[in-house]
Write a structure and sequence with these properties.
By secondary structure, this protein is mainly alpha-helical. Helix content is 75%, strand content 0%. The protein is built from nine helices and no strands. The protein is globular and about 65 Å long.
């Protein structure tokens, strides 16, 4: 059962339920990395709105180095999203099970690198600090594109502005007074309760992940991200194993018989 569940969460065959469950878990990871990463590098790296605004401010103020840092972070997030798109399309054209799992595995490995090497941030901060910000932005770009591709852009996990906006829209619909209780009547306004629940779940898990990430970085340090990385790797493992077994069987069939 656990193996089948893991395969369903990150495998090639998608269901709405699997998309939502994966989205909720990745929102938890993003919240932890975003909040914990802020304690490490003093930057929120999961959403790009702040980087665009700060880059514009620093451009006006003449802070060339900060402008370059902001552009580097934006480019890194963009490259992360592009990497996911390339991997998904590459795997899709080869009919691979790990269509989405490859990006999850890369995210896990990069988080492990961040966790294991983070203690060295105190040395050469002029180099290590910007590099860490760029790494975290790349990781968040990877992750955001995974869920966006899986859900056809219905779910986002690395920022909550859109989620809170959608929540407000659905709550407005819920509070709207209809003249008639007939839901089939023309102009009847009613909330999408399923959409309301998934957005509430993502928002809550992002917040809980943020609390755990901040507490972890405060009391444990960079090793806090290691369990998250291991969980992501476990999540990606079954589709990758399925592909490896398929190619092994194909190779054995092609071997000449003695």
């Amino acid at each position: 059962m656990p193996i089948a569940y893991l395969r369903r969460l990150s495998g090639r065959t998608r269901t709405r339920s699997a998309n939502q469950q994966l989205g909720v878990f990745l929102a938890f990871v993003a919240g932890a990395v975003n909040a914990g990463g802020f304690l490490a590098v003093h930057q929120y790296t999961s959403h790009m709105t702040g980087f665009v605004s700060s880059t514009a401010d620093n451009l006006v103020l003449g802070n060339a180095l900060l402008v370059l840092a902001g552009l580097g972070s934006l480019l890194s997030f963009l490259c992360g999203a592009a990497t996911t798109a390339i991997l998904i399309n590459w795997a899709r054209h080869r009919n691979m099970h790990a269509e989405y799992a490859l990006s999850l595995a890369i995210e896990a490995l990069l988080l492990l690198i961040f966790g294991l090497l983070g203690a060295n941030l105190n040395a050469y901060t002029s180099v290590t600090l910007p590099a860490t910000v760029i790494l975290l932005c790349y990781i968040m770009g990877l992750q955001n594109a995974i869920v966006s591709k899986i859900s056809n852009a219905e779910i986002r996990t690395t920022h909550v502005t859109g989620i809170i906006t959608d929540l407000g829209i659905e709550l407005g619909k819920m509070l709207y007074w209809n003249r008639s209780n007939d839901k089939t009547a023309i102009g009847h306004v009613h909330a999408n309760k399923a959409k309301l629940m998934i957005h509430m779940a993502i928002l809550l898990m992002f917040f809980i992940g943020g609390i755990i990430g901040a507490l972890g970085f405060k009391h444990v340090g960079f090793m806090t991200v290691v369990p998250f990385a291991c969980a992501l790797l476990l999540l990606a493992l079954m589709p990758i194993i399925d592909d490896a077994l398929f190619y092994l069987r194909a190779m054995r069939k092609q071997l000449p018989r003695e």
